[in-house]
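This section describes the prediction task in plain terms. A model, or a person checking by hand, is given the sequence of a single protein chain and must write out its three-dimensional structure as a string of tokens. No templates, partner chains or ligands are provided. The sample shown here is typical of the held-out split.
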Amino acid sequence: MVAVTAAGTASGARSRRPHGSITYLHGVGGARAAWWRPLTRALGGLTVDFVAPAYDDLLTTPGRVHARRVTGDATATTEVARRAYVERQRRLADLVDAVGESTRMVWPAGLPHPSSLADRLPLASMLRAPVFGLDQMGRYLDDDARRAAVMHRAARAILRAPRPRVVVAHSLGSVVAWDLLADPRIDVDLLITLGSPLAHPAIQASAVAFPYHRVGAWLNVVHLLDPVPAGRGLRDAFPAASDAFLSPLPDLSAPGSALSRVAAAVAGAATSHLDSSYLASRTVLAAVREAMHVATGLSAPMRRAAS
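The expected answer:
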């Protein structure tokens, strides 16, 4: 765990009490060094704990793992809690609209949508192949004990993190985050999923009754050229999520030649699934600011009223 200020200064020991925390649930291959750096721009000088529990070793090392999941919510979600959550999601949608980065681009007629192409791929087999670390996802899905061990590490980090509590989950990490919602101890102010494969049929996401009373808001961000979500949001399959789509097209108003814009578009496509591309987006930064109460009038606070 490190404490980081908006200036980007990190230290192992906190010099002052943190304002809140951001826990990062990484994808295959583990968390990058200084993954948190793009987010420091959102913090307005606050000292925030950045936590990235490592669990890639559990999905790469041989041998058996012994662990069991923590499930079962003693407190059932009420209709009042669901309605309050819907109102928070409305505010989140207003925030995303105010940022102006998310696009509702219609896919060109005559061209197959990426999701239709992805559905034709043998993804279930691909996730078990030792290529680009994809087999780590397969091990997580297939081995209940490894899955439980990963969830245990992630839950321990979240539970130790100070409030306001933001969880950012990239790719495989979004599957871990969804599974963690079945743990009655998990309570977060904002969940942000990035490049999530949860909606793909091959993932077969766990059946979880969404805990409206334990999640402040849920933002799912999709780069339209990211091959993992394949242009697909989560809201259709997971109604509690609010989708934001990042355009694959360059900003035509930006200075530079047409060639430079084409080069930028190609580079954007090549890096579309990288967490660094998502974490630097204005939509993600605005949502983090809002959760930490440092936004400047973009919308009302999303955090739940104290019970």
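For orientation: Residues 90 and 173 are 25 Å apart (CA to CA).
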